[in-house]
Write a structure and sequence with these properties.
Blueprint: H1 17-26, H2 59-72, H3 76-97, H4 103-106, H5 118-126
Helix pairs in contact: 2-3
């Protein structure tokens, strides 16, 4: 017995990307797209979005960061991103090993105001 092709619903026209996003958040694409013909694509030049921030660092810490970056022949801001990303990943790994995150860690950041001192920042930068 031959399989009958199910008919797909037409994809609506959207007035904006925001409206399209809301639509796909609430609708299953299976009724609109035949995924049996899908192919894997590679987007090698796709870069993640970045956001500009202002960060005040003690002068000695910034000097050390620039010296390390110079030694590795990379821009100091790139090195700082690597250091921060490594530390954040380490924190997530260690929190998963301990089980659930602490109650304080689950609070929105706007409610937490940890005391950050130059000494604490320098210690964190050294690892």
């Amino acid at each position: 017995m031959a399989k009958s092709k199910r008919s797909l619903k037409p994809i609506p026209k959207f007035a904006s990307e925001a409206k399209e996003r809301r639509f796909w958040e609430t609708h299953d694409s299976a009724g609109y797209v035949d995924w049996s013909h899908a192919t894997v694509v590679s987007l090698p030049n796709l870069k993640p979005s970045t956001e500009t921030i202002s960060l005040r660092l003690p002068a000695p810490l910034l000097s050390d960061l620039k010296a390390l970056a110079n030694k590795r022949d990379v821009p100091y801001q790139s090195l700082l991103k690597v250091f921060v990303a490594d530390r954040v990943a380490e924190e997530w790994r260690s929190s998963k090993q301990r089980g659930a995150l602490s109650h304080e860690a689950l609070q929105p950041t706007s409610r937490r105001r940890p005391k950050v001192t130059a000494k604490r920042m320098a210690r964190a930068a050294r690892g």
